[in-house]
Amino acid sequence: MRKAMVLALIISVPAASFAQSEIPTFVTIHQMAPAIEEIFTEPFETLVVITSDGKAITVTNQLARQVRSSVEEIKCFLKRINQGFDSVELIIHNHPTPSRWSLQDKRFYHRLKREGFKGDFALYFPWSKSMRYMGDDEVNRGKNGGGNTLNRKNED
Asked: What is the pLDDT of residue 52?
C-alpha cells in the first residue's frame, strides 16, 4: 500500500503570469511515487514533480487545457518534503487530448532551466501511455522531443 500525505492547499496564482481570476490549486505529496498511469487518470492536466529519492508531488487546477503552477510554488512544495530544487529528477505533465508542446510548456521549461533545473521535463500522453522529453534543441526548433518510452535511460 502506498502512503500519500494530502495537503489541503488553495494557492492564489500570481496575476502577472496567469489570468486575473484566482484558480484553486490542489497538491498531493506522495512519499513514494505512484506509477505514471495511476497519476494521469482524470480528464484534466496534472503536473508531477518526482525527486531523486522517489517522492512525488502532484499539482492540478482541474482544468482541461492547462495546469497553473510556478517555479516558486514548486520550490515551496519541495520544502514541505525537505527537498531542494536540485533533487528534482523529472517534471512531467499530461495533455489529456492529443497535442504537441504548447508555447506555455516551452516558456515554463525555459523558466525552470533559468532557475537551475537539471532534471528531465516530459509530456505524458495517457491515450498511448507514452512520454516525450523536451530538450533545448526541441524547444528552440519548436518540435516535440524524445521517444515514446516511460524509461528515458532506455533511449541511450
From this structure: 94
